[in-house]
């Protein structure tokens, strides 16, 4: 949605009706009611308003707004019983997942009610406000008009800007990949090691489906594949991949193409790392994690045989977390592979090393502790 397509929000200030454009890259709806808030507002009052769905347009000190948001976050944490255990005890991994997502969604709505004004040049007209113009330019594009956005979204923009500036170290490349706002960051890099170690069926040509930051296209180029065609539907991802490939001086080997899954033609190697969880995204940014009804996975499997050269391989990178959550069975995956006219040539696994895998307080700990990430080598049956 472009800035001009975003809705307007309205409020009363100094007894006068006011309005401004609402902006949310997360796709959060505009609050229907907005009141003015400043340093005099208590955390309890703010939390009550936020739970009611009332937006609070901040006119006080910016750093005080950040402290208030932290106080709201503490109040939004799940409540425990007297023994310190969560009151809701899910009866299955699927229930745990659904309750976790519901809690995340409710928390996001509540914390998104603390709002900030932005001038047309992305400056924030508040005391002690930081310079966020570069972060906003990276996420929103060229400025156009004043608007209102949530403080929580702004902090996400700032965090994305820092990740983009710092980058993510990729050992297999001996370099950093710099993710853009809204493009999935390869912070969980275990799957990159699988791609680095798998024997290449050919070094002539490869297709990288859903390239994202371009990390796998870069790795294939680094491994000596002469030509890679990397596709993605998201213009942001394509810009991000292009910037990374130019920085790595690998852009001469990689052609970037906006396409829904496959480019035209066939290749001896086709690689895809689809979203791993078959669930509905609650915001545009979650499309890299959640794949409703396994659409991208099924689309890749369904079209793979028609895009493989004789004797070619399709590399599917997939976590089995969905299986441990009861969202997709191994039998369903194998049936989809068979129905697509494919056979399994081999599979290599790796256990994730991210902190949540060992965090017993995580609501999904049991599933995460059992998770494996796999590279499935597929061929035409």
UniProtKB/TrEMBL annotation:
**What would be an example GO MF term here?**
nucleic acid binding
Which Pfam families does this one have? MTS
Question: Which InterPro entries is this protein grouped with?
Answer: DNA_methylase_N6_adenine_CS (IPR002052), N5-glutamine_MTase (IPR050320), SAM-dependent_MTases_sf (IPR029063), Small_mtfrase_dom (IPR007848)
Q: Which SUPFAM superfamilies match?
A: S-adenosyl-L-methionine-dependent methyltransferases
Q: Locate the region Disordered.
A: 75-95
List GO BP terms, alphabetically: methylation
What are the UniProt keywords, alphabetically? Methyltransferase, S-adenosyl-L-methionine, Transferase
Record's CDD domains?
A: AdoMet_MTases (cd02440)
Output this protein's name: Methylase of polypeptide chain release factor
Name its species: Collimonas fungivorans (strain Ter331)
């Amino acid at each position: 949605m472009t800035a001009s397509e975003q809705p307007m929000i309205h409020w009363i200030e100094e007894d006068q009706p006011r309005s401004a454009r609402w902006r949310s890259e997360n796709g959060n709806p505009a609050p229907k009611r907005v009141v003015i808030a400043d340093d005099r507002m208590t955390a309890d009052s703010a939390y009550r308003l936020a739970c009611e769905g009332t937006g609070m347009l901040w006119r006080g000190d910016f750093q005080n707004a950040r402290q208030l948001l932290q106080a709201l976050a503490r109040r939004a944490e799940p409540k425990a019983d007297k023994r310190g255990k969560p009151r809701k005890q899910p009866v299955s991994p699927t229930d745990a997942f659904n309750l976790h997502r519901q809690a995340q969604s409710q928390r996001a709505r509540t914390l998104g009610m603390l709002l900030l004004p932005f001038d047309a040049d992305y400056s924030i007209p508040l005391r002690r406000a930081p310079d966020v113009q570069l972060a906003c330019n990276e996420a929103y594009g060229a400025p156009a008009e004043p608007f209102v956005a949530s403080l929580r979204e702004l902090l996400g923009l700032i965090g994305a800007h820092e990740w983009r500036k710092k980058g993510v170290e990729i050992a297999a490349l001996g370099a950093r990949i710099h993710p853009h706002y809204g493009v999935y960051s390869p912070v969980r890099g275990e799957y990159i090691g699988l791609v680095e170690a798998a024997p290449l069926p050919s070094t002539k040509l490869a297709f990288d489906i859903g390239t994202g930051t371009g990390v796998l296209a870069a790795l294939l180029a680094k491994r000596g594949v002469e030509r890679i065609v990397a596709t993605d539907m998201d213009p942001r991802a394509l810009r991000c991949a292009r910037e990374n490939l130019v920085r790595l001086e690998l852009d001469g080997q990689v052609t970037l193409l906006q396409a829904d899954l496959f480019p035209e033609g066939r290749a001896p190697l086709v690689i895809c790392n689809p979203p791993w969880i078959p669930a509905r995204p609650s915001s545009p940014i979650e499309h890299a994690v959640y794949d409703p009804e396994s659409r991208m996975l099924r689309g890749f499997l369904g079209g793979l045989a028609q895009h493989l050269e004789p004797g070619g391989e399709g590399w599917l990178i997939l976590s089995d977390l969905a299986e441990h959550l009861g969202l997709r069975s191994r039998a369903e995956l194998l049936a989809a592979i068979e129905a697509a006219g494919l056979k399994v040539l081999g599979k290599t696994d790796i256990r994730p090393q991210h902190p949540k895998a060992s965090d017993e307080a995580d609501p999904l700990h049991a599933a995460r502790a059992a998770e494996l990430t796999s590279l499935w080598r597929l061929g035409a049956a």
